[in-house]
C-alpha cells in the first residue's frame, strides 16, 4: 500500500511542475539583455566630428594577456588626418580567436578610444573571419560625423578635443554615459 | 560515402539534398567533450534555463558512436590531443566539430608548450566560437549557425560539383550560410536589415548602431 501512495506522491511532484512558470529564456527570438558592463565585442570610438579617438599608442596591445591585438601606428599629416594629434592607427586588428574579453585593453586605453559593447554573437566558421579589422571595429558614423581623413574641426589642437570630450564624448558607447541619458524607471547605476 | 555518391545530378539531387540536410541538421546529438570551464557553460546551455532541448540536443552522448556533433569545450593539452582524435574517429559519419571558447579555437591566452594551439591542428572544425568562456547564448548561436551551414552542405561528389558551378555563376546567397547572428536571422525585419548591410559591407557597424540605439544596457540591464 505504501508503494502506491508513495508513487502517487512522487508523480504528484512531477505533475505539479506542469503548472509552474516556465524558466526557459526565448533566445534567439528574444534577445536577452546582458549585464550593463558585460564584456562583449569591442568598439573603436570617434570624436563628435568623426575623427578617430585611437592614437595608435599600442598600450592596448601591450596590456593584452592573450596577444590578441595588433596595432600599427602612422603619422597624421595635414592632408591626411585620421585623429587629432600626431599619430593614428593605420592597422588595428583584434583576433577574436584569442581575445578572452578581460577588458584590460579598455583600462589601458588613454583616450577612451577602445570600449566594449554587449554584443556577443561572434561565432564564425573560419579563423580568418574572427580577426576583426579596423573597418569592422570602428563605431558607425552618427549624424554630424564625417568620415576621416579630414582636418580638425572642433579646435586648434588635440587639447581642445580632450577637454571638449568631458561635455561631448562623441561615441563612447559602454564607457561614459551620454549627457542625454536619463535614468530609467528602475533608476540608474545598477 | 554511400548512396549519395552515386545519385545523378539535377532536380532530384537538390531536393534529396534539402531533405537529407534537413534531417541531418535537426537534433544533432553532441558528444560530451568538456575539458575545462567552457564545459560548465555547455552544461548550462543544456539545462532548463537555456534548454538545448528546444533543438532536440539536450542529450550529450558519452558514447561517440551515437553522437553527430563534437563540442570541444575547453583547452586541449598535448596529452589530450590523441584522445580527442580517437573520439572523433570513433564518431559515425556525418559528423561535425564545434570548437567552443578561445582555448579550443586557437590556444587563447595559453600560448605555451602544454596546450594545442587550436583543435583544428587535430580535427577539422566547422564552427569557431570565441569567448572565455562563451555564455550559453553564444553556444546556442554557434549551434544555430552550424545548423544553417549543415542545411546548405553539398551532398556527395555531384552535389559538390553543382555547388562549384553555382559559385562560379555567382549564384550564392548574400550572406554566407552561418555568418548571420541568430538574433538577426530569427527576426525577418532585422534579417533584411542585415542583408542590406552586408551588400554595403557595413554589417558590423549595423550591429553596434542597433546596440547603441536600443540602449538597453543603460536601462538597468535586464534581470540583473
Explain what this protein looks like in three dimensions:
The complex is a heterodimer of chains A (190) and B (224). Chain A has 190 residues and is an alpha+beta fold. Chain A is built from 5 helices and 5 strands, in the order αβαββαββαα. Chain A is elongated, with a radius of gyration of 24 Å. With 224 residues, chain B is α/β, with parallel strands linked by helices. Chain B has a 5-stranded parallel sheet. In chain B, strand 1 (30-31), helix 2 and strand 2 form a beta-alpha-beta unit. The model of chain B has no long low-confidence stretch (mean pLDDT 86). Classes of the chains: A alpha+beta (190), B alpha/beta (224).
Key words describing this protein structure:
heterodimer, A: 190 residues, alpha+beta, Alpha-Beta Plaits, three-stranded antiparallel β-sheet, two-stranded antiparallel sheet, 5 helices, 5 strands, B: 224 residues, alpha/beta, five-stranded parallel β-sheet, 9 helices
Strand percent estimate of chain A: 5-15%
CA-based shape of chain A: elongated
- Discrete helix count of chain B: 9
Specify Rg of chain B, calculated over alpha carbons. Answer: 19 Å
What's the mean pLDDT score of chain B?
86
Helix and strand content put the structural class of chain B at alpha/beta
Task: Encode the helix/strand succession of chain A as letters.
Answer: HEHEEHEEHH
Model regions low in confidence, pLDDT < 50 over at least 5 residues of chain B: none
- State the order of secondary-structure elements of chain B, H for helix, E for strand: HEHEEHEHEHHHHH
Percentage of helical residues of chain A? 10-25%
Sheet of most strands of chain A: 3 strands, antiparallel
The fraction of residues assigned to DSSP E strands of chain B is 5-15%
Shape of chain B: globular
CATH C-level label of the domain at 42-140 and 149-163 in chain A: Alpha Beta
> What is the largest interface, and how many residues per chain?
A-B, 56 and 59 residues
Derived from helix and strand composition plus strand pairing, the structural class of chain A reads alpha+beta
**Mean of residue pLDDT of chain A?**
84
Give the second-level CATH assignment, the architecture of the domain at 42-140 and 149-163 in chain A: 2-Layer Sandwich
CA radius of gyration of chain A is 24 Å
Number of strands of chain B: 5
User: What is the CATH topology of the domain at 42-140 and 149-163 in chain A?
Assistant: Alpha-Beta Plaits
Amino acid at each position: 500500500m505504501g508503494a502506491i501512495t508513495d508513487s502517487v506522491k512522487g508523480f504528484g511532484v512531477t505533475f505539479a511542475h506542469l503548472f509552474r512558470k516556465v524558466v526557459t529564456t526565448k533566445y534567439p527570438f528574444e534577445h536577452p539583455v546582458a549585464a550593463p558592463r558585460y564584456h562583449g565585442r569591442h568598439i573603436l570610438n570617434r570624436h563628435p566630428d568623426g575623427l578617430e579617438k585611437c592614437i595608435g599608442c599600442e598600450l592596448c596591445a601591450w596590456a593584452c594577456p592573450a596577444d590578441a591585438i595588433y596595432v600599427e601606428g602612422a603619422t597624421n599629416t595635414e592632408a591626411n588626418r585620421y585623429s587629432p594629434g600626431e599619430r593614428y592607427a593605420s592597422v588595428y586588428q583584434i583576433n577574436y580567436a584569442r581575445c578572452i574579453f578581460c577588458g584590460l585593453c579598455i583600462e589601458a586605453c588613454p583616450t577612451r578610444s577602445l570600449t566594449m559593447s554587449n554584443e556577443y554573437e561572434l561565432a564564425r566558421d573560419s579563423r580568418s573571419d574572427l580577426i576583426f579589422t579596423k573597418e569592422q571595429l570602428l563605431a558607425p558614423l552618427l549624424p554630424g560625423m564625417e568620415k576621416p581623413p579630414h582636418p580638425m574641426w572642433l579646435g586648434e589642437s588635440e587639447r581642445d578635443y580632450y577637454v571638449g570630450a568631458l561635455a561631448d564624448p562623441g561615441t563612447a558607447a559602454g564607457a561614459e554615459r551620454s549627457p542625454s541619458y536619463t535614468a530609467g524607471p528602475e533608476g540608474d547605476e545598477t | 560515402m554511400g548512396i549519395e555518391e552515386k545519385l545523378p545530378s539535377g532536380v532530384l539531387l537538390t531536393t534529396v539534398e534539402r531533405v537529407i540536410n534537413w534531417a541531418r541538421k535537426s537534433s544533432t546529438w553532441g558528444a560530451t567533450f568538456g575539458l575545462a570551464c567552457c564545459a560548465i557553460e555547455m552544461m548550462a546551455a543544456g539545462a532548463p534555463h537555456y534548454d538545448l532541448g528546444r533543438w532536440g540536443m539536450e542529450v550529450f552522448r558519452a558514447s561517440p558512436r551515437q553522437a553527430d556533433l563534437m563540442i570541444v569545450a575547453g583547452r586541449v593539452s598535448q596529452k589530450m590531443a590523441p584522445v580527442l582524435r580517437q573520439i572523433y574517429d570513433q564518431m559515425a559519419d556525418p559528423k561535425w566539430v564545434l570548437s567552443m571558447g578561445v582555448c579550443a579555437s586557437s590556444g587563447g591566452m595559453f600560448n605555451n608548450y602544454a596546450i594545442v594551439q587550436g583543435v583544428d591542428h587535430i580535427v577539422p572544425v566547422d564552427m569557431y566560437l570565441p569567448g572565455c568562456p562563451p555564455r550559453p547564448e553564444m553556444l546556442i548561436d554557434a549551434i544555430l549557425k552550424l545548423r544553417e551551414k549543415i542545411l546548405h552542405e553539398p551532398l556527395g561528389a555531384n552535389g559538390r560539383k553543382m555547388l562549384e558551378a553555382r559559385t562560379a555563376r555567382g549564384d550564392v546567397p548574400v550572406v554566407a550560410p552561418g555568418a548571420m547572428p541568430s538574433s538577426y536571422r530569427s527576426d525577418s525585419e532585422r534579417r533584411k536589415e542585415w542583408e542590406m548591410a552586408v551588400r554595403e559591407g557595413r554589417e558590423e557597424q549595423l550591429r553596434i548602431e542597433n546596440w547603441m540605439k536600443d540602449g538597453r544596457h543603460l536601462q538597468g540591464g535586464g534581470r540583473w
